[in-house]
Amino acid sequence: MDVITHDVVIIGAGLAGQMAALEASSGADAAIISKVHPLRSHSGAAQGGINAPFGNVAPDDWEKHAFDTVKGSDYLADQDSVEILCKSITSRIVEIDSFGAIFDRLPDGKLAQRPFGGGSFPRTCYAGDATGHELLNTLYEQIIKNNVKVYEEWLSTSLVVENNICRGALAINLKNGEIAYFRSKAVIVATGGSGRVYERTTSSHQGTGDGISMAYRAGAQVSDMEFVQFHPTTLIGTNILISEAARGEGGTLLNAKNERFMGKYAPKMMELAPRDIVVRSIQTEINEGRGIGGEGAEFVELDLRELGREKLLQKLPQVYKLAKDFANIDAAETCIPVQPAQHYTMGGIRTNNACYSSISGLFACGECACVSVHGANRLGGNSLAETLVFGKLAGASALEYVRKKEMPGIPKKVVEREEERIENLFKGSGGEPEAGIRKELQKVMWDKVGIFRNERELEDAMRTVKKLGERYAGVRVQDGSRVFNTELMQAVELCFLLDNAGLMAYGAQLRKESRGSHFRTDFPDRDDKNWLKHTIFTMKDGKPHARFEPVRITSFKPEARAY
Ligand SMILES: Cc1cc2nc3c(=O)[nH]c(=O)nc-3n(C[C@H](O)[C@H](O)[C@H](O)COP(=O)(O)OP(=O)(O)OC[C@H]3O[C@@H](n4cnc5c(N)ncnc54)[C@H](O)[C@@H]3O)c2cc1C
Fold first, then answer.
1. Which of 67, 263, 276, 431 could join 517 via S-S bond, C-beta 3.0 to 4.6 A?
2. Average of pLDDT values for 295-322?
């Protein structure tokens, strides 16, 4: 077994991981582990943009941004954390602009800003509709310039934690199948979301909730997993995202009767109400028979024709091309068939405002973390903002932490146990491949822990997830090769998916109210008296143990949410 030593190891090379690495590398030896090439991280798929209250188009300030975020979160976000996000993001954008990111600009040279769901002003800065791609490439240049070592195509399988102190991580080198111990004084988890828990998702295949599961298994607190964001507009069939920017630029939603139905649900903000509201409106239209396309394939239409070809090609070239390439539709002439799909994981590794988890030396940032700035529903454009702001803070905290710490010894037993666990995946007694279990998991999560939830279905889902977990114990990887064994990778990831799914279903079953993205048909109202609190899970004897923590409220008293 190889031992690879760095002061700080960052798992994940998306925007959060790269930002953290950049900051940590300013005073320590920092390295990144990523299961894909850094530029293939899901951050690169972000289209619409990044929120920052520059006020370039209409007067704006951090307090207005904070209010929209808190209201969007259905008052579950911790308001002191939101303040940090909204006060710091403009500096982060100026920083990444100075690194060379090319944002769209107004004629006077200021950054252009477009309207986005739940924002009371045009606040979303953007680079066409490929904002994530632009930011990720820019940061990657800085990573290279600053000599951050990147272990790309390495799959981290577990964290090494003894006596509640993190001492590094274990990872498989996908190129030869060998396991190495990454010995470090601190680990930053930045592994992104867990969209692949669901049958329909906009997430790339890497979104399997690895870090959330690894931290949970190591004893860390994980919170608010019941809050899963569904996106209103994904291309029918593939569920490729059609960015909110399409509605921000003036796109409208139509049902089978050709009605612009959002007027019924959000008379003021219409298509630009927050995502949870637009998703439920679309699903209600479909459930009540006003969807298009017959049973099992229902959708509504996103109408971009009014924009005209020139504006489409200038402002939304990616949307235009995705519709053309994946549905053979010319969006300038024909409506795009869209349906909701999973999009974002609001819950995750519980951290404080400086990104410390409940385990010493373990930090988390980005989509896998729950600080919490998104509460029960994230606003579009706020996730990229979170990656930059809290990625930098995680790097700074880890840097400060490692200055006072010694490099740990080598916990041989832990390392050997992990080698044995991975080896056993080739010998599973049940002989079953992982793919069938994964598909069943994704289906039950979509069917029963989806947009509309109820007690009976949630209990069903919990039972199914448990049974699938039992079957997982006997999984056998059929492909015996060690070089780029994607089946082995997926078998490891399935364990992570099962953990995430179990916590999502359990959290949803516990929460007897409707708030943000979590809608219970048997408890349709928000209940601030009993449920204005975070769900916190820790693993005890192999099972989730739940407790609750109050939401931190500073300036904005909870009110009814109308749009
Ligand atoms: C299609 C799409 C469009 C979006 N558009 C927007 C938008 O316009 N605006 C906005 O604010 N948000 C948007 N989002 C959300 C936002 O892009 C993500 O939440 C954010 O980029 C996540 O960044 P991250 O750094 O936390 O993780 P990611 O970018 O997801 O990166 C995760 C990293 O972790 C690594 N990793 C994971 N598991 C392991 C493991 N076990 N071992 C080693 N490495 C591992 C991966 O290799 C990857 O490098 C969008 C999301 C999607 C899916």
1. 276
2. 91
Give the model's confidence band at 27: pLDDT under 50 very low, under 70 low, under 90 confident, else very high.
Answer: very high
Cα 324 to middle of ligand 1, angstroms: 25
The whole-angstrom separation of Cα 50 and Cα 290 is: 34
Whole-prediction pTM: 0.97
Closest by CA to 381, choosing from 74, 49, 141, is: 49
* Ligand 1 neighbour 44 (Cβ under 6 A): no
Three-class secondary structure of residue 552 per DSSP: coil
Options 196, 200, 247, 275, the catalytic residue: 275
Residues 6+ apart with CB under 8 A from 487: 433, 434, 477, 478, 479
pLDDT reported for residue 140: 98
pLDDT digits (tens, 9 = 90+) for 140-168: 999 999 999 999 999 999 999 999 999 99
Task: Indicate if ligand 1 lies below 6 Å from the C-beta of 10.
Answer: no
Determine the Cα–Cα distance for residues 127 and 112; give it in Å rounded to an integer.
9
183 part of the active site:
no
d(CA 422, CA 152): 20
Mean local confidence (pLDDT), 44-70 = 96
